[in-house]
Design goal:
The chain is of the alpha/beta class. Helix content is about 40%, strand content about 15%. The protein has a nine-stranded mixed beta sheet with strand order 1-2-3-5-4-6-7-8-9, with helices on both faces. A hairpin with a 2-residue loop joins strand 2 and strand 3. It is globular, with a radius of gyration of 22 Å.
Length: about 325
């Protein structure tokens, strides 16, 4: 394989990982364009007018392609899927179908991906977050959600959750891009590198600088806490990054370091390895991804129920204290 072909292959396998070193996610976004043809005409649940099927909505001033399926289950959060970079919602259609068997689930194409509008210019994390907020307003209303993101989608979900504790009740990060991906790559593969590794470095850094379909500029940030929401992190077990000559082993080490760093997003996080999977865990071992999402959704529902019970107990205690105070005041007056 020539140097050019080797570099392109890695930056695509890493476009999902090295395109950005697994760092973002990639692939032919139209390869799985089988998203429920039956859902191509949007309908609504008559009782609560929920968006069902595939539909374009206006989110933060742009048309965004959204797909929702499954029936709402009482006390269960809405699951929202975030695809990796270079992909679109069609890539996660099989995963969406499996999750829909247990409850309501939605996915959407970010600006620049799939059938959504192109962004007006370069995007940053805040702008992508505003679009996500508008999508959640449409598909979930005031209901709680669990965000399940792959690669770049995992990074975006973990960046978003700490700022929206009232809405995001859980996270599933499927081989999420490292929170320090840019610095990690620059340090691991020096500017003096030659051959395929040099191609991987150049192509991946270009992607991080905004030369990607979504025109998103990646910036490294410290991991912020979203409290004690349930979080499951799954990382790949097939060490595909070792295909990068000289630096592959180090890239794998950096990837694992990034997964460990993401654990700080919650005091209630668990990390495990999908040993039979490459970067696309939900494709290679869909049952592992489904199990992680179901566990987080169930635990999130339990936490909400516990919170409601505590609130009710607090209100009852306050009422009892008020009655006692009033009675004591009456006796004192006598």
């Amino acid at each position: 394989m020539t140097r050019r072909k080797t570099g392109a292959a890695v930056a695509l396998g890493l476009c999902c990982a090295v395109a950005s070193v697994g760092l973002v996610g990639c692939g032919d976004s139209k390869a799985d364009a089988k998203v429920t043809a039956s859902a191509s005409g949007p309908t609504s649940n008559s009782d609560q007018d929920r968006l069902t099927g595939i539909k374009k909505i206006t989110a933060d001033g742009h048309l965004v392609n959204v797909s929702c399926s499954g029936s709402p289950v009482e006390n269960r959060p809405v699951v929202v899927l975030l695809h990796g970079g270079g992909d679109d919602l069609t890539k996660m259609s099989d995963l969406q179908r499996r999750i829909a068997e247990k409850g309501r689930v939605c996915a959407y194409d970010r600006l620049g991906a799939g059938d959504s509008e192109r962004p007006d210019g370069r995007q940053d994390f805040d702008g992508v977050g505003r679009t996500l907020t508008a999508v959640l307003d449409e598909v979930a209303g005031d209901e709680p959600v669990v965000l399940a993101g792959h690669s770049m989608g995992g990074l975006l979900a973990a960046r978003y959750a700490p700022d929206h504790p009232d809405r995001v009740r859980g996270l599933v990060l499927l081989d999420a891009t490292s929170p320090t991906a840019v610095a990690d790559l620059k340090k691991r593969i020096p500017a003096s590198a030659t051959g395929p590794a040099a191609d991987v470095r150049a192509q991946t850094l270009a992607i991080y600088a905004g030369k990607n379909p979504e025109r998103l500029v990646f910036t490294d940030q410290d991991v912020r806490s979203a409290g004690a929401i349930p979080v499951r992190l799954l990382q790949h077990g097939k060490r595909y990054l070792t295909s990068v000559p000289t630096y592959g082993q180090g890239l794998e080490e950096d990837w694992t370091k990034g997964q460990k760093e993401w654990q700080a997003v919650s005091r209630n996080s668990e990390r495990s390895t999908a040993r039979g999977s490459g970067h696309y865990i939900y494709v290679d071992e869909p049952e592992v991804a489904v199990e992680a999402i179901e566990r987080v959704a169930a635990r999130a529902a339990e936490q909400d129920a516990e919170r409601d019970t505590e609130d009710a107990t607090g209100r009852d205690t306050a009422k009892a204290t008020g009655r006692g105070t009033a009675k004591a005041t009456g006796h004192a007056a006598d």
